[in-house]
Amino acid sequence: MRTEKTLHGWPYFYCMRKKRNIHVSYGIGIGSGERDLVIIDVHVHPLVSETQILEEMDKAGVDRSVLLGTDTDPLDVDKPEIKEKMRKRFNSSKLYSHPYFLFFHPIEEGVKRFFYALINQYPNLKNSNLDVAELVEKYPNRFIGFGSVNPNKGEEYVEEKLREISRLNLRGIKMLPTLQFFNPSENKNFERICEYCEKNGKILSYHTGCDPGPWEIPELSEDANPKYLKPVLEKYSPTIILTHTGSYSALKPGLWLDEALELGKEFENVYFDSSAASHVIYQKKVVERIRESFGIERLMYGSDFPVVEGSNMQYEVNVIKNCQYLTDEEKNMILGLSAAKLLGLEGAT
Ligand SMILES: [Zn+2]
User: Fold this and answer.
1) Are 205 and 239 a contacting pair, CB within 8 Å?
2) How far away, in angstroms, is 234 Cα from ligand 1 center?
3) Residue 35 C-alpha to ligand 1 middle, in angstroms?
4) Cα(317)–Cα(55) distance, rounded to whole angstroms?
5) How far is the CA of 296 from the centre of ligand 1 (A)?
6) Of the candidates 77, 76, 108, which has an alpha carbon nearest to the alpha carbon of residue 91?
7) CA end-to-end span of the chain, whole Å?
8) Would you write out the chain's pLDDT as a tens digit for each of its 349 residues?
């Protein structure tokens, strides 16, 4: 465990996703990569410098990365309805008094500490819409930019952010019901974002499953259960990628896999990435279920770099390359062909 480095008294592993469970970190298996296929990483956070991201991509043979912005405000947790929801969920969890989660007591303060630790851990963090657009402008052949909109702000704020996303020519929008404290079936602004994406051909990268820090408590991540998307998707049809396929969780890997696959079966505009959940998804049974229910072409490679402890882009690429349950054609679709199609990059890579 990497507990040696602390920032303002905060062990930095609170900001990392844990590969298996919160007590164990894993070794990295690295193989060699061929250069005959297009690899697109649909899930990268610009938390470290662009040089580090590009180096990481080169090591893994990744041609292009989708950089995801995040528009979130830790102080939203002080809104009475959010505070009440968070407290209720945290207090109802069996994990409430687990030593790991004592750091997050009381939950509204714990959430704020999580964000401050994140900022301290990643001083080069560049995840505003403008930051992401600048990175894309600098490396147009390597980066694809997705912005983000905080859905807890007023209607005017949301409209301004949507105009900003159009103006900056960002290709999609990243939304996280966890770190942005919202339930998609109860949030009007989220509906508006879905409508905007549908009308403007933007792709929604939507977080499903648990998240680092306090959100490793499944009750606290409840809003990120894919089932809550159903009412919105019955109204609007944005192209939506369910990141982690509802499966990321250190404590309960695969927790909402069923709900995610169910949504994929019902809506043909629903896609998936395997970031932080490759150990769940690339198993024989799961691969077969995906193949039979809607097809491997809707599953895409994502690394979640740099936030998964014990993992990196190359590791995740190799998990797919070495998966014995996929055909070569399917591996190529997952690693880049499907993303190229979705992002309109065919022929451009
Ligand atoms: Zn992520």
Assistant:
1) no
2) 26
3) 26
4) 15
5) 21
6) 108
7) 38
8) 333 333 333 444 566 776 554 432 322 223 334 445 799 999 999 999 999 999 999 999 999 999 999 999 999 999 999 999 999 999 999 999 999 899 999 999 999 999 999 999 999 999 999 999 999 999 999 999 999 999 999 999 999 999 999 999 999 999 999 999 999 999 999 999 999 999 999 999 999 999 999 999 999 999 999 999 999 999 999 999 999 999 999 999 999 999 999 999 999 999 999 999 999 999 999 999 999 999 999 999 999 999 998 889 999 999 999 999 999 999 999 999 999 999 999 765 5
Q: How far is the CA of 136 from the centre of ligand 1 (A)?
A: 18
122 alpha-carbon distance from chain centroid: 17
Tell whether pTM > 0.85: yes
- The residue length of the chain stands at 349
Check if the beta carbon of residue 250 is closer than 8 Å to that of residue 21.
yes
Tell me how far apart the alpha carbons of residues 31 and 333 are, in angstroms, rounded to a whole number: 20
Domain borders along the chain are 38-71+123-342
Ligand 1 centroid distance, CA of 45 (Å): 6
What fold is seen in the domain 38-71+123-342?
TIM Barrel (3.20.20)
Distance of CA 303 from the midpoint of ligand 1 (Å): 8
Nearest of 311, 313, 332, 310 to residue 321 by alpha carbon? 332
Distance 48 CA to ligand 1 centre (A): 13
Q: For residue range 305-327, what is the model confidence (pLDDT) as tens digits?
A: 999 988 899 999 999 999 999 99
CA of 211 to the centre of ligand 1 (A): 8
Give the tens place of pLDDT for each residue, 129-143.
Answer: 999 999 999 999 999
Q: How far is the CA of 208 from the centre of ligand 1 (A)?
A: 10
